[in-house]
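Morning, I've got a small favour to ask if you have a moment. It would help a lot if you went through both lines with me. I owe you a coffee for this, so here goes:
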Amino acid sequence: MPYDSFAAMSREDVLAVRAYLLAQPAISQPRPQNILPFPFNQRWILVLWKLANLHTGNFTPDPSRTAGWNRGAYLVEVLGHCGACHTPRNTTFGMDENRKLAGGTAGIWQAFNITGDKIAGVGGWSDEELFRFLKPALCLGRPMRAVRWRRQS
């Protein structure tokens, strides 16, 4: 459900993604049946979720930070939608903004703390450790696997 992150995309990026998708060959397959349990299978509830959790508007760069930092923040918060998994959810299943990137769960998946915290997060890691940590996420067509998300020293 990362569309709350994608809502902050720049128009240029939205058009680039649209152009890419339109360039792909069409696929014909039956739509999977909705297997979500009640009340999550009720689409009208999404209106209430949006009222509580959807923040509209484009990404706003932090003027006190560098252009590189702001580009990284845009990649993490918007295009990469890292918070969709790595941020705990609140009681309305929105992202808990007070614990951004502090780790979360989605079904059987565990997404670990990726904050700059030197003890609980990745703040004490070297560039090489971060590269090894993030590299599996670059494998297209596969979800990030929890077994790969361990600090390898």
Notes: DSSP finds six helices and two strands in the chain.
